[in-house]
Design brief:
By secondary structure, the protein is an alpha/beta fold. The chain has 16 helices and 13 strands. A hairpin with a 5-residue loop joins β8 and β9. The two termini are 27 Å apart.
C-alpha cells in the first residue's frame, strides 16, 4: 500500500474537508483503518504541524504513562497570530487526550487547531471519552465511492442515477484505477488495495482481516476468547448482507446471544460494518423488522469469511455480492451527503425490495439483479411498492449489468451498475 500512490489520487471529501478544517473548532475524523484518513489529512496539514501517532507503540506508551505530556508539548509550541496545527493519529488509543484537548481549547481557542483521527469508537464509548460536544466537528471517511474509482466505460452525461453523488467541482480529478464490477466484488474498495499490484491484493486483505483485527482487539482487551471470536467473524462475514439472526450465530460459534450482540457492536464501533434497518412505514402487516448487517468493504468481507478474494468466489457468489456492493455504495453516499436513510423491505411470505432510500419526504425503491437482460418480471416487487406508496414514490430503479438504461415499466428504469 504505497503512500505515494494514495497521495496521487483525489478523494471526494477533500475540498469540503479542507474548508471545514479551517473553521475554529476541534476536528475529529473517524473511519476504518486503511481508508486513507492519515494520508488525506497529512496532505492538508501545514509543514510545521505537530504530529503525534498513537499507533506507534513507543509514542503511545509514553503518553499513557505520562498523562500530562500531550498538554506540555502543545504549550511548548511558540504562540503566533495563526493557530498552530496539532495532529493526533489513532487518538482512541489514548482516550485521555480528548480531555487534554478540551482543556487547551477552552483556555485559548485561537492558539491551536486540533485535528484528531481515529479508527475505532469502542474504547471511547466504553470509557465515556469526551468527544468535545459544542467544540468539535465530526467527520468520516469511507472506502472509495464510484466517483473516486470510476468504471472503465464512463457513463454518458445524460445518465440518471437514483442517488447521484458527483464531484463537487468540474475540474479534472485524479481518480483511482478503473475496475470492472467483478474486481470490485472480489477485492473491495480500500485505497491501498485498489492501488496495489494485482498479485498482492488478496494477501493484503487477508492480513487486514486477521492480523489487523487481532492487533486492535487484543490491544483493547475487548475479547476474552480469541478463537471463538474468529469463528464469529468468519460466520458474520459469510452472513454479511443478510438479516441478523443472533441465535443461529450464537449456536454455530458456541457463544451466548449477548456476546454475539456485543461482537456485532464491536464491528460497528471499529467501522468494519453497519446495519440497514427494515422499512416499517407500510400498510402491510407481515413486514419483518430485523435489520441487515453488512461489512463495510467486500474485500474485507471475503477475506474475513475465510475466502481467497478472486474471480472464483465472484463466480459462485455473484448475485449476493453484487447486491451488497450496491448497498455499500448507496450507504457510503448517504453518509457523505447526510440527506437520507437507507432501508430494505421484506415480508414473512418472501416479498422484498432490496433497498429503499428515504430522502426529502420521498421514497426511492431499488432492486439489484445480476443480469444483463432485465425484464418486467425482475421489477414486480418494485411495482407493488410504488402502488402501495403512490404519494411518496415517483419511480423505481433496477441496478443490473445491462449495457444501457432500459425502461422496463412506465415508472421503473433498469440501469447499468456504472450509471449508479
Amino acid at each position: 500500500m504505497s503512500e505515494q500512490d494514495l497521495q496521487m489520487n483525489d478523494r471526494w471529501v477533500s475540498q469540503s474537508l479542507s474548508a471545514k478544517l479551517a473553521r475554529p473548532y476541534v476536528h475529529i475524523l473517524f473511519g476504518a483503518r486503511q481508508t486513507g484518513k492519515s494520508t488525506l489529512l497529512k496532505a492538508m496539514l501545514p509543514e510545521d504541524a505537530l504530529s503525534i501517532n498513537f499507533s506507534d507503540p513507543g509514542e503511545r506508551n509514553q503518553h499513557l504513562s505520562q498523562p500530562g505530556l500531550f498538554a506540555r508539548m502543545c504549550q511548548a509550541l511558540p504562540a503566533r497570530r495563526q493557530p498552530r496545527t496539532v495532529f493526533v493519529d489513532e487518538a482512541q488509543n489514548v482516550p485521555s487526550v480528548f480531555d487534554a484537548v478540551q482543556a487547551l481549547f477552552d483556555s485559548d481557542k485561537n492558539r491551536w487547531r486540533f485535528i484528531l483521527c481515529g479508527s475505532s469508537a469502542r474504547k471511547l464509548r466504553k470509557t465515556g471519552a469526551n468527544l468535545l460536544p459544542g467544540r468539535s466537528f465530526i467527520h468520516h471517511l469511507y472506502p472509495l465511492i464510484l466517483a473516486e474509482q470510476p468504471p472503465p466505460a464512463r457513463p454518458p452525461a445524460y445518465a440518471a442515477s437514483p442517488l447521484a453523488l458527483p464531484w463537487k467541482t468540474q475540474e479534472a480529478h485524479r481518480t483511482f484505477p478503473s475496475w470492472d464490477i467483478e474486481e470490485r466484488l472480489a477485492f473491495g474498495a480500500l485505497p491501498g488495495v485498489v492501488t496495489a499490484d494485482p498479485q498482492d491484493r488478496a494477501e493484503l486483505l487477508r492480513a487486514y482481516a486477521i492480523a489487523f483485527l487481532e492487533e486492535e482487539i487484543r490491544r483493547e482487551a475487548l475479547v476474552k476468547d480469541w478463537g471463538a471470536f474468529l469463528r464469529f467473524l468468519q460466520l458474520a462475514a459469510r452472513e454479511s448482507g443478510q438479516m441478523l439472526n443472533y441465535s443461529v450465530i450464537a449456536r454455530e460459534v458456541g457463544l451466548s446471544i449477548p456476546t454475539v450482540k456485543s461482537h456485532y457492536q464491536l464491528l460497528e464501533d471499529m467501522f468494519i460494518g453497519f446495519t440497514i434497518p427494515a422499512f416499517s412505514v407500510s400498510a402491510r402487516r407481515n413486514l419483518l423488522s430485523t435489520p441487515r448487517f453488512c461489512f463495510f468493504d467486500l474485500g474485507i468481507r471475503n477475506a474475513a469469511a475465510g475466502l481467497t478474494p478472486g474471480a472464483d468466489i465472484v463466480g459462485a457468489l455473484a448475485g449476493p455480492l453484487f447486491e451488497q456492493w450496491v448497498g455499500i455504495e448507496l450507504w457510503k453516499r448517504l453518509q457523505y451527503s447526510q440527506r437520507g436513510k437507507l432501508h430494505f423491505l421484506r415480508t414473512e411470505d418472501g416479498a422484498e425490495v432490496d433497498y429503499i432510500i428515504e430522502t426529502g419526504g420521498k421514497l426511492i425503491p431499488i432492486e439489484v439483479k445480476w443480469t444483463e437482460r432485465p425484464s418486467p418480471g425482475d421489477a414486480r416487487h418494485l411495482k407493488t411498492f410504488i402502488r402501495e406508496h403512490p404519494k411518496q414514490t415517483a419511480e423505481g430503479w433496477l441496478i443490473c449489468r445491462c449495457s444501457h438504461a432500459v425502461q422496463i415499466s412506465d415508472n421503473i428504469t433498469a440501469i447499468p451498475w456504472s450509471y449508479l
